[in-house]
Amino acid sequence: MIIPINIATSSSTSRLPPQFAQFGTDEVVLIEMQGALDVEGSPDGQFVGKLTVDDETKKPTLLIGHHLLEGKLVNLPKPLAVMHRGTRNSADVAEDLGEEDSQSIESSSNAPSWDVVAVVKRKMVFAKRPMPMVGR
Amino acid sequence: MVEFNLRLTTNSAEHSGSYRILELPPDIHKLIDSTFDGNAGLSIKGNKDEDAVLCTLDKTYALRSVVLSNSVLVVTPPVDASGDPDTDVVIQDTIHEVLELVPTLPRLQRLNGMLRGREYDEGHDEDEDIVVDDSNGHTRSRSKLTYDDARSMLQASELELALGLRDRHILILDGELRPLASSYLTAILEFLLTALVSYSLSHHSAPTEQVVTILEQDHEVRSDVTRQVMGWFGEFGEDSWKMNVAATVREVGLGILRAFRNEPIVEDQFLAKWRAAVGDTFESSVDLILLLGNYLTNRQPLDETAPPLLTYFPASDLPSDPAGRFADLFLTRARWKAEEISPFLSDIVVDNKERDKLLLKYARGITDSQGIWYTARAKQG
Q: Over 90: is that where the pLDDT of B54 sits?
């Protein structure tokens, strides 16, 4: 089985705001944090927290519920490709492979493929222990 | 101070698990950077029962997963009208592992099994339906393997596949892959050497079409077969062919050596036969170094001063997994000198560093006045 990898680093229509994009690329920023997000109720579209970037120090802070996380910009030793799984219908895949019929393609109706949506050389890391904020 | 709202995607079910992070070695990074949307020749290959590999147009990498203790959020602008791109940033997915790429040898071993029964030998001019017995005792026709079949079934890059077919002397006849029988290959090379001499053609620049015609008329070799063999053992120019003398002399030597797998031949006699087979013009290129990895030398038992004995012992017949390879090598000989064992490892390692790692893992090295000797490691309990 051959799964093609497409390069799609500049095909996104929307861009991230510049003060946030400086932690990654215009399309993707990777945020690293300890632990995992605990979601209550339906996750779709839910608000997670307020992310603030100080203009001068460029330090990011993230307020999630009662937790205040302080973070920083970390340069990556090796660049990371961010890949997004796409499924194309078998007719598109057949056309690319120059097949007359789709017999040699996987029997599932959608052949898997992956798009490289960004290559990031930095990430935003929240490594310090969160400080509980009570009241505001 | 700038503030953003960090939100989860509106489509968690679809996006969860749909992202991966891949660490890029410098050459792949450069490849991606120079491709603006579209095809960089990258693909992932493998069947469900194999470990996946990533292939560029000319290299193969094994994929290795590294689990992270932290979580990594993939954050993008909001999709469509689901949020305000100036203030909302959206978590598409949470990732807990990073994929690493490790350069690896192309995996072509399956070719041998896939092509069993499809050899091309002298006199196979018509397309026969080769009939084989399968495991149920029924006879059936062996199905043909095309180049496209090999490309989709083997974990190798385009270039490595082409080179692999070349190295294994696999012909493409009428769209089908056919390994050329070794004995016939040696015969064709000897026809080529004879033709160059008989018709006074220079091996630096022989007229291609004339050579093809000579072999067809004098020796009944199919023209498409001659052309492919010439391509393996030389370079084509404008209707001219420049023979790769070392490769051709080597293959002729191998052809003679193959007869001595079970019974050894005295080195001097072998060299004499070899020189005679290639003729005066190419005699000076005859050298045992060309055959490294295909023979063993042993001192003659009662006479230390007599020339050594050679036996045919090809690395390609040994197991390709490291444990199996070393087991066979130490069964054949209890101890090996470093220079003697290296040629029998070069086909299963990417570089010398990997070879040294394998020697460290599977052998015990002892240094004495004569150099480094390797013996088998005692089995760990």
A: yes
> Which domain covers residue B206, as residue numbers?
110-125+152-243
- Flag whether B310 is in a domain: no
The SS3 call for residue A59 is: coil
CATH number, domain of B93, equals 2.60.40
| CB spacing of B10 vs A45 below 8 angstroms | yes
Phi, psi of B170 (to 5 degrees): -100, 120
Residue range B110-118: average pLDDT?
Answer: 87
Q: With a threshold of 0.85, tell me whether the complex ipTM lies above it.
A: no
Pairing of strands B131-133, B53-55: unpaired
CATH of the domain at B175: 1.10.10
Q: How many domains does chain A have?
A: 1
- B285 to chain A, minimum CA–CA distance in Å? 44
How many independent structural domains does chain B possess?
2
How far apart CA B303 and CA B297 sit, in angstroms, is: 14
Which residues pair with residue A85 across a beta bridge?
Answer: A114
Q: pTM to 2 decimals?
A: 0.80
Same domain, B15 and B87: yes
Q: Residues 15..54 of A with a Cβ closer than 8 Å to B: which?
A: 15-17, 19-20, 24, 27-37, 39, 43-54
- In this complex, do A80 and B98 lie within 8 Å of one another by their Cβ atoms? yes
CB–CB of A7 and B39 under 8 A? yes
Name the residue among B259, B243, B234 with its Cα closest to residue B201: B243
Is A60 domain-assigned?
Answer: yes
Distances (CA, A) of B350 to A105, B104, B354: 32, 6, 6
Q: How far apart are the first and last CA of chain A?
A: 56
Is there a single domain that holds both residue B188 and residue B219?
Answer: yes
**Does residue B118 share a domain with residue B183?**
yes
What interhelical angle do B182-198 and B223-232 show, nearest 10?
90
Q: pLDDT category, B365, cuts 50, 70, 90?
A: very high
Q: Is residue A98 part of a domain?
A: no
